[in-house]
Design goal:
Length: 189
Amino acid sequence: MTLLQIAAEGEEMNPLVPPLPELVIGLIAFFIVFGLLAKVLLPRINKVLDERHASIEGGMEKAEAAQIEAEETLQQYKEQLAEAQREANRLREKAREEGELLKAEMRAEGQRQRDEIIAAGHAQLAADQKAAALSLRQDVGKLATDLAGKLVGESLEDHARQSRVIDRFLDELETQATAGAGAETGAAR
């Protein structure tokens, strides 16, 4: 059944089926509005959509370019960081070497100063030993002269004579001490 037959048969009013003239007028109005929309509004909508598509594509291209640039910048930063780390390691190694050199120099300077102090101590000790030997020699000479004067019974107050007697006495003592040390060394062999 067609619409006309339904309309003819159903003159009785069916609420679901509109009257035929209204249906025809509605269809004509629909096609007019549809035609106007297709001719006027559809090109504008397509234009806006194309612009949006272009801006989205441009934005994506810009985003990709920015991402590539960011990756290049990141790579440059990584290279700079690696270079800075190499430089820091080089400087650290240089500082360590300089520290080692400085420690060696300070040790050598300390050793030199210690040797100087020891040499000065030995020189002072030798000078003190000489002074003590001379003082001892004079004291022993004086005692020996007094003792010899008491033993001999005459005065040995003459200074020149006293010096000769003291020197001779001490020389004899040194000769005896040297001979005794030589004899002990020979006996030990």
